[in-house]
Amino acid sequence: MSFAALFVIGMDMMQPTTPPKPGSGPIPAVKTCQVGFLPNERKIAVITTGKEVTGEILRLPDRKQVLSAKGSAPRMDPDSGDNVSHLDFSHLQEPGQYVVSVPGLGESTPFEIGPNIFAKPFRMAIRSFTGQRSGIDVSLAPDFPEYRFPAGQTELAKYHSSSGKTGTRDVRGGWYDAGDYGKYMVNSGITTGTLLLAFERNAAKLAGLKLDIPETGKSKLPDYLSEIKWNLDWMLKMQDEDGGAWHKATTAQFSGFVMPAEDRADLLIIGTGKAPYKNTTATANLAAVAAIASRVFRKYDPEYADRCLRAAKSAFEWCQKFPRELYQQQPEGIGTGGYGDGEPDDERLWAAVELYRATGEARYHDFFLELVKKWPETFGEAPVPGWQDLRPLALLGYASIQGQLVDPEFQKRLRQDLEKSADAVVQRIQRNGYLMPLRSSDYIWGSNGVVANYAMVLQMANSIIPKESYRQAALDCLHHLLGRNLWGTSYVTQVGTKWAKNPHHRPSGADKLEEPWPGLLVGGPNADNGQKPPARQWFDLTESYRTNENAINWNAPLVFALAEYLGTTP
Length: 570
Prior knowledge:
By secondary structure, the protein is an alpha+beta fold. The protein has two domains: 36-113, Immunoglobulins (Immunoglobulin-like); 118-484 and 545-564, Glycosyltransferase (Alpha/alpha barrel), CATH 1.50.10.10. It is 35% helix and 12% strand. Strands 2, 4, 5, 8, 9 and 10 form a six-stranded mixed β-sheet that branches. It has a five-stranded mixed β-sheet with strand order 14-13-17-16-15. A four-stranded antiparallel β-sheet has the order 1-3-7-6, with no helix packed on it.
């Protein structure tokens, strides 16, 4: 979740009182994934209708009918308020371009059936992080050469009085967190960890990708890891000599809608305002991420892997000395994203698991087994991680351990609980009118990130307890994000045919280009305004930071989920 605009004051931040129609044009009655479907998966179009219908699948470009299918009996979907019917065309497996046509209601946007339909969206989603780079000239050429800006935050940062130090420090680099130009350790943690775990699972597919980033052809690292290293290097710079990490590096207040180089306010290193000035959540995030990095980078750069492991161990020891140093109150004069978290033990749990997996040292294993007793319930009905709760990543990490000493009874229990939880998510998707996993209470700030995290968890569950239903449910999550939703709109900018047009994203708002920066997953419906139905609380307006901001921690599980289904090199 991004809180990047939470404290911004000004006319451009006012929340709209009446919902506009998101995307461009009217809301279609025939909705399907605008990217498409794999040949061997379930293929369903959602029809908004109060009557029984029959649809036709037309091949493009000749519009020849290749299949006729009868829709299911219409039923009410309570979270959207729509009457929906499902039109199943799973029998169609022939690769090609198609549309679904329903006489009297209209047609879907075009989509593709093929083995590598997710290659382009994956490339756009991972290269969106290049577009979030700080401290370097940015260009999304050759794909989108007009999307570029000169480097921002090129000067040394100043220690804020809350940091416990004076002078300057080099914290150049890293990714801008969201639609603003702040850099936050807590959100960088789950983001970078998720992307590293995606590589660890899919190295054979990801290692050879050419991403056309500044390091392409110049580094011994795979491009995917070079992109991650840009942010990981920044996280390492945020670690003090005693092992602790400061909370964030931002200006005192959010900038207006300007390009990065035009935000000329001082960059500040911000801490808790009292000794030891660093905090446990930021430091434990660094410990976990650096531990994963030590495993992932070892094949390509052993020296860097060793550096990451030293940083992880030092950060973990700092957290042992300071287990509950919290960042919950903004220092005076600071109005950028808070990312305050009153419970640091889930971060410490994640750090312990990842350090154990990296080192095999019993002390990390023992600490994990003792700390995990704090939570009698393991996965529950919503087993998704977020920056406030990293326990699901810790539990998934332990459940997946092979070839190392584990507590066999506890791991068995974890896997059983995971299966029960994942089965419940699958059943919820099957009952939902739009075949997606959110409960009514899940329509929070960044609900699309929640959907992407459901996809990730289902994929991880499928590796631990293989079930085809988990694979299909994860695909259904992607189909929802890519257009099979009540708006008939892709929530990922410039992916599909009809996408979110107006993200709360400063470069998109300041660059004078008609279309937004590509590959950004916007936050999605957010019912904290108290309005119902919850799935309709999305506003495709730049000023709607509550529903239409982008954030790196939402794009990361999107990258993870898309990577799983890559066929050939994108």
